[in-house]
Please model this.
Amino acid sequence: MSALPQSTRVTEAEYLAYERDSEAKHELIDGEIFAMTGASESHNLISVNAITAIKIQIKGKPCKLYPSDMRVKIVPWRMYTYPDLSLVCGEPQFADHEFDTLLNPVLLIEVLSPSTERYDRGRKFQAYRSIPSLKEYLLIAQDEPRIERYFRLEDDLWEFTDVQGMDAKIALKSVDAVLKLSDIYEQVTFTDEPE
Model:
């Protein structure tokens, strides 16, 4: 595995060379490399359930759904992230010939964790909004049955929808699908302290 460059900031090329040789995942923010931590059981179950629910509904559509191993480049921010789920409709565009860095997602999903929630809601969402193709952003809680959806309207305004409870459901307008919270939270046990 390559060592991180000794400078406090790295170039995108240095980051990609390091990342492609690394066994762990790292995000690049403002020229700094940040290691990603492992996910809890709840986080993993929610991610798998969301992938399953969406994949069934996009069958036959010109859309591709990627799990958290697909890196996304946010060009205006020179930032690289690993959303929990990324969906592209139409032809996927990649940053280079390695086909491991997506440029044009229409839907991004993050499963919230205490260690990342503030970042997912704040700076990361601010960066995601600069992706021209992005139409929808979902935040899925893991400490309660709750999904928050941001949908891009005309003039770069964002519509917010918040649904809660196991009987609730939410429409994914970007791909004409519906998520039932009972499906997303199947086999998930809620505790007072999510991981």
In short: DSSP finds five helices and 13 strands in the chain.
